[in-house]
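pls design
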């Protein structure tokens, strides 16, 4: 009797061990198949949308993120910066655009622009220059707090990338 019960116990152990090895083997085989379905890094860099949390950006500050290999400035503008940008007569601008057309309605304090100078592709410095916006030190182009060209050789405003608010504190670029 002891021999028969130990035989059943050994058989049960072998079945469980074989099943466990088969499960691990199946998972190891399936893992590369599942992971290859994810986009690779070059695809993500080529234009996959990114989400940015805006909560850590205090009023008057900005951050720089990268989307499609380009620097994107996200600026939490002060009331003073918004008022100054809106008081500029559009007729005086080289590339005429209103401040309202460069921000999303209801989120006037958030400016999102591609941080590449439209003159020769340099990266401007935020919160610098005569207009409390962006200053390109390479050739002296100056943009206001709405990213509009105000002085220097740059022909166009800093472009606004496609973006949307997914909540009051998060945006999706792309």
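designed seq:
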């Amino acid at each position: 009797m002891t021999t028969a019960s130990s035989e059943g116990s050994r058989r049960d152990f072998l079945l469980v061990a074989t099943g466990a090895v088969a499960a691990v083997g199946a998972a190891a085989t399936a893992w590369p198949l599942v992971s290859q379905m994810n986009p690779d890094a070059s695809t993500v860099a080529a234009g996959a949308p990114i989400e940015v949390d805006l909560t850590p950006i205090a009023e008057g500050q900005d951050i720089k993120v990268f989307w499609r290999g380009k620097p994107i400035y996200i600026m939490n503008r002060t009331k003073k910066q918004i008022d100054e940008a809106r008081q500029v007569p559009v007729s005086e601008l080289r590339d005429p655009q209103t401040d309202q057309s460069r921000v999303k309605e209801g989120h006037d304090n958030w400016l999102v622009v591609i941080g590449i100078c439209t003159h020769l592709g340099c990266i401007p410095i935020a919160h610098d220059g005569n207009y409390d916006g962006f200053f390109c030190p390479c050739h002296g182009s100056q943009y206001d707090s709405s990213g509009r060209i105000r002085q220097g050789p740059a022909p166009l405003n800093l472009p606004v990338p496609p973006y949307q608010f997914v909540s009051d504190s998060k945006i999706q670029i792309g």
